[in-house]
Amino acid sequence: MSQLYAVRMDVALPPDMDPAARDDLLAREKAYSQRWQRSGHWLHIWRCVGQYANLSVFAVDSNEQLHQILWGLPLFPYMTITVTPLSPHPSDIAQDPAHDSTAQ
């Protein structure tokens, strides 16, 4: 069974980074993250408006798998990452088998 995590990633690239190195790094980051999205382990990714940051949701088999995914990010050395384990909420109607999806 997969474990769910919300992960916030804030990026701080050096302002004097070589533009060609920056472009290469960003291309590798995009390819890496999209591989994990296609695998089904990186469920969602949202941009945090006005910031060089994203909020993502991961479904992984273990803490170790999430750790390996995050450490493998090409941008990892330039990130501050906050991980929050997620659990179903008892008031979530999507978790209630008796929930009728029609509007009342």
Task: Describe the protein in words.
The protein is an alpha+beta fold and 104 residues long. The chain has a single domain (3-88), classed as Alpha-Beta Plaits (2-Layer Sandwich), CATH 3.30.70. It is built from 2 helices and 4 strands. The protein has a 4-stranded antiparallel β-sheet. Strand 2 (42-47) and strand 3 (53-60) form a beta hairpin. The relative contact order is 0.26.
Summarize the structure.
The chain is α+β, with helices and mostly antiparallel strands and 104 residues long. It has two helices and four strands.
Shape label:
elongated
- Decide which structural class fits the backbone: alpha+beta
What is the alpha-carbon Rg in Å? 17 Å
Q: Mind telling me which CATH architecture this is? A: 2-Layer Sandwich
Q: Describe the largest sheet.
A: 4 strands, antiparallel
Portion of residues in helices? Answer: 25-40%
| Text of the CATH class | Alpha Beta
Query: What is the succession of H and E elements?
Result: EHEEHE
Tag the structure with descriptive keywords.
2 helices; single chain; four-stranded antiparallel sheet; alpha+beta; Alpha-Beta Plaits; 104 residues
Question: Which SSEs are present, and which pair or pack?
Answer:
Layout: E1 3-11, H1 19-39, E2 42-47, E3 53-60, H2 63-71, E4 79-86
